[in-house]
Write a structure and sequence with these properties.
single chain, 165 residues, alpha/beta, Rossmann fold, Rubrerythrin, domain 2, three-stranded antiparallel beta sheet, 30% helix, Rubredoxin
C-alpha cells in the first residue's frame, strides 16, 4: 500500500516498539507491488523494538505456488537456524543469602509490589535482568524500570504491606 505498512500492522508494531524485548527473534515477510518498502520498514521497526532479526522475504505481486513454496522453505530455514543457534550463556544462580539483621534490610527501604500482577521487588535481590544491582533501594531504581511480569512502569508499584505482629 503505497510503500508503507498496512495500518493494522503499523499500529501493532508501534505498540511493540514501546516494549523492550530481549532474546526474541523475528523475520519480516510480505508481498508487494512496485517497491517493497513496507517489508524493509517492518524489519527496521522490529529491530528497533529489540528483536534479533533474520533475513526478510519479499514476494512480488500476488504470490503463485512457487512463491508460496519459497515462503515455506524460508520458514523452515529460519526455524532450523533458530533451533541450532547456541543458547545465550547463563550464569549459575546462587541461593540468595538471607539477611540476619533486619537493620540492614530496613536501610534498603521497603519491598515494592506491582499492583497489576503482584510481582515483588526486593531491594536486597535487585533485578539483574534490568541491571538493577542487589542492594538497590526503590528510590534508586531507574525511572525506565519495567515490571518483569507485566511490563508496566514504576508508577504501578506500591509499598508491600507487612503483617502485623
Amino acid at each position: 500500500m503505497n510503500n508503507v505498512m498496512m495500518p493494522k500492522i503499523a499500529g501493532l508494531v508501534e505498540e511493540m516498539t514501546g516494549l523492550r524485548f530481549r532474546n526474541k527473534r523475528a523475520s519480516a515477510f510480505g508481498s508487494h507491488g512496485w517497491s517493497g518498502g513496507a517489508v524493509d520498514r517492518l524489519s527496521t521497526r522490529l529491530q528497533d523494538a529489540g528483536f534479533e532479526m533474520s533475513l526478510s522475504l519479499k514476494a512480488k505481486w500476488r504470490p503463485d505456488l512457487d512463491a508460496l513454496e519459497l515462503c515455506r522453505q524460508h520458514g523452515r530455514d529460519i526455524a532450523r537456524q533458530w533451533a541450532l543457534a547456541p543458547l545465550p550463556e547463563t550464569t549459575q544462580k546462587t541461593a540468595p543469602v538471607e539477611e540476619t539483621t533486619t537493620c540492614a534490610a530496613a536501610d534498603l527501604g521497603p519491598k515494592m509490589q506491582c499492583s497489576v500482577c503482584q510481582w515483588i521487588y526486593d531491594p536486597a535481590l535487585g533485578e539483574p535482568l534490568q541491571d538493577v544491582a542487589p542492594g538497590t533501594p526503590w528510590s534508586d531504581v531507574p525511572d525506565n524500570f519495567l515490571c518483569p511480569e507485566c511490563s508496566l512502569g514504576k508508577d504501578v508499584f506500591d509499598v508491600l504491606a507487612t503483617e502485623a505482629k
